[in-house]
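Comment thread on ticket #2218

A.B. wrote:
> Attaching the input chain for the structure job we discussed in standup.
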Amino acid sequence: ALINLIQGKSYYVEVLQKEATYEDNLAVGWLKPGQTGTVPSEIIPGSVLSPLSIKSKEINKDNLTSIDAVVDLLVYPNPLGNNELNIKIENLTSDVLLEIFSITGMRYYSEVIQNSSTLHIDRNLFKSGIYIIRATNDQFVKTARLIVK
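C.D. wrote:
> Ran it. Output below, let me know if you need it in another format.
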């Protein structure tokens, strides 16, 4: 689908590819400002791509500890159909900000989690699509992808 990009704004891009033969290839392209058409004029260069970043809360990476390896973010069922969404963050030792974003960066849900109990979220909150679930505090960052049918 055609998506108009705004300079300076970040966008989430995810591409899934199934291996067919040994010479498979995949690229994502764009049209630069002022160009017209329905076919990309160039492949998006790696120099403008970066890992999913944290916008709403800056994390000092020097403060991240080994607790990141101990904490688990569980999201089920995934893909999500007509059931409620269950999210559990195991082995918490402090409060965590849980956020759910659409792939365009719109925040759909935000809550501070204080313990390792299971959180139940109404399915009707979501439209069909792909979402990013992020749990953060001063000690770790955990993300998960959620597919909603």
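A.B. wrote:
> Thanks. Noting for the ticket: The CA atoms of residues 41 and 65 lie 43 Å apart.
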